[in-house]
Amino acid sequence: MKISSFLHFASFGIRTILFRKKDPILGTVIVTDKCNLHCKHCSVNNITAVVHPYRQIRGEMQTLYDMGVRILFFCGGETFLWRDGDKSLRDLVIEAKEMGFLIVNVVTNGTFPIDLPEADLILLSLDGDRDRHNMIRGDTYDTIMENIRNATADNICFYMAINQINKDCVRDVCKKARDTAHVKAVSFNFHTPYPDTRDLALGREEKAECCRVITQMMKEGCPVFNLKGAFPYLIDNRFPTPCHQCLVMENGKLSVCGRCIDVPGLCDECGYFFVAEYTLLFRGNPRIVLEMLFTYLKYI
Description:
This protein has one domain (3-299): TIM Barrel (Alpha-Beta Barrel). The protein has 10 helices and 10 strands. The chain has helices spanning 3-19, 54-66, 89-99, 130-137, 141-149, 170-179, 204-219, 231-236, 273-282, 286-299; strands spanning 26-30, 71-75, 83-84, 87-88, 103-108, 121-125, 156-162, 183-190, 246-250, 253-256. The strands form 2 sheets. An 8-stranded mixed beta sheet has the order 8-7-6-5-2-1-9-10, sandwiched between helices. A two-stranded antiparallel ribbon has the order 3-4. A hairpin with a 2-residue loop joins β3 and β4. The longest helix is centred in the N-terminal third of the chain and has 17 residues, at 3-19.
């Protein structure tokens, strides 16, 4: 991370904590909900299957920037399906950097060639060992591994949503992140149970066991892009929601924290690690502040 970026984020954090401000710092633009997969745990793919036009996406990026957002995510659907004429996802990432975003990340299912060295992180969904991943996402594991081998930069971070199908694969994914070229780290979430996927949600003891395994893998040197200090809050769902420092733009609609905020009661069962981490960070939790500092300097 550049020293100028570090100073900006440090200043933002201090102001937010001291003055209890709710200004945003992280934003997500949903470029499309169109996806080439139909994953068992996903409730937001192919609802419209619309690929939003470049001019609209560019305007949403500008809106978030003007609001103070400096960490930008591009999400889907599947982000690599996005095109508008001669414009591709790479053009969006480059323009975001030129616009002034300090960190630009992309979320993908990994089934398309990974040639995006301009992104700070490519969060690539890997949901277990071959068998469990394919059970959730279809026969894609080998394709993803081949695309990782052929990636053009070392900016990949595995992104695993832990659910009833893959809860015993946390150790496998940690080791895969440690031992795979071009992969910097792994980031976890617990499954957030939309009404149609409630049967995949974990109970408290299952979450606790997953956190125990993640902690052990950290001790063994696996590169985990999560904060241990947030684990107790995630296990009991006792972190404050929504996270006012995070925004999502989808087809002109601005949501605080995430698009799941519109589902009644879902915030109370939030499984997003970053929501717990950011809300605790901006409440001034000293352990989270130190862990966030160390983790971001190490992996970004």
